[in-house]
Description:
It contains six helices and no strands. The protein starts with a helix and ends with a helix. The chain has 132 residues and is mostly helical.
Amino acid sequence: MKNEPFQKVQGQLRELLSRLPDAPVSSNFTARVLQAVELEESRGSRRRVFEWNWRGFFQRITVGATVAVVAAVALQMHEHSLARREMAKDVAMVASQQAPSVEALNNFDAIQRMSQTERPDAELIALASDMK
């Protein structure tokens, strides 16, 4: 097998390491090791705060811009849909109304002039202001 020489060397290494005497360590060795690990982790996190992750920054900007564009297009499509609905309602209302008679259309100019108000009389306004 391919792993037999590797396993043989590994077994010999284990045997040699087991012959070594145990190194004297202090009673608080575990606590000191854990404290050193925590210190190293906090140093690493402090470094990451001050380092810019440009790749992540650009990814976030790209995702944000994509979301904004999709939202803007969706909003525009929604407003266009509402405008089309309003136009359809208006067309349906006009279609349901009866068309004016031909006589009314012949006299349209006269009817339009009747609905217009006259201009205010400047002389009358001047007399009214003199009376005060």
